[in-house]
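Problem 12. The chain below contains 431 residues. Write out its predicted structure in token notation.
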Amino acid sequence: MITRYSLPRMARIWSDQNRFSIWLKIEVLACEANARLGIVPARALADIRKKARFDIGRIDEIERETRHDVIAFLTSVAEHVGPPSRYIHYGLTSSDVGDTALSVMMVEAADLILADIDALLAAVKEKAKAHKDTVMVGRTHGVHAEPTTFGLKMALMYAELLRARDRALRAREVIAVGKISGAVGTHANVDPSVEKYVCEKLGLTPAPISTQIVQRDRHAEYLTQLAVVASTLEKYALEIRGLQKTEILEVEEGFAKGQKGSSAMPHKRNPVACERVCGLARVIRGNAMVGLENIALWHERDISHSSAERVVIPDSTILLDYMLHLMTGIIENLNVYPENMKRNLESSRGVVFSQRVLLELAKRGVTREDAYTIVQRSAMSIWNKGAHFKDALLADAELKKYLSKKEIIDCFDLKYHLKDVERTFKVLGIQ
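Solution.
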């Protein structure tokens, strides 16, 4: 069964309460920095620290008139602080507060996503260990290729998720910057020391140069990294869907007691969670494209990016958080059917060992072209018949000039294909 997702973890980050709280923190920190410069009197700073607060209902009321969220916020704060509020937002522009706060929230979201990836990594690692030697057929173009193990499939997912973790970490690093540089970013009305102080207190690095905004290539990279992670989840959700087909049924999503698969067909057990992952990955990729479109703005800034990213950035982080949680449940509760894997492997009647025979012939001096012809002849002869590939090879007079009966039979040893599994697991640290 798939456990329910608890949205408040990520939703709290994007709540008005959290956003305005970070805005207020930035404003107070800027006042502290300006007090060090002698701009804000000590008494005024004390009053600001003591009285600074906001009322979301009041902010909404003011914004309906001003149509400017930061001004509405500042007005609400000023109503609580009184006369010393004249030092709040001193030399700042709206984006100093909004963009720096957005970076803080994006970092918080990235930290949650990193924790999610760690949980999924742990689930995949356990599944890989459990099925390290569970033999199944590998497929290329959807057609039987050569033997592999289900553990190797899980190990492949583990390795890709390690890269996904690196991507999420890079996304965090690229956006962990702030700017308190004033209108058009020249620091004309706000000393660079204020920017340094505020960013350090928030765990950010000051942008080495900015205009009125933090440059949107950072946000685009963040969204693109999340999209690649989402696509990795889609890749393995799609693999599970393929392996759950009725005629294959090598793995299957957990199906909870009381769960229903179809309004019309009571027998259905559909991979709905995996399908959900695949569908949502498309949304996150689309959001990444919006991030790329937001890079190019007029001159030092315009505001065309703002409305779009207020949707795509929270949505992408919320969706990826959900998808990672969902995928962890899928892996933990995955039904694996080794007997079906064995049955399917055997259903192609030994043709999956054709390359081994080809290579044995090459070792004995047969040209690759001639060896390919000999082996393919036997393989094609049984493709639509009930015979076994081994029997066809044993009956091939030309093949028997080069390989003995025992040597032909030895080509069908599964251990040959699985001899490197242990090394692969060791390289990946799956022990």
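Discussion. The radius of gyration is 30 Å. Students who got a different answer should revisit the alignment rule from Section 12.3.
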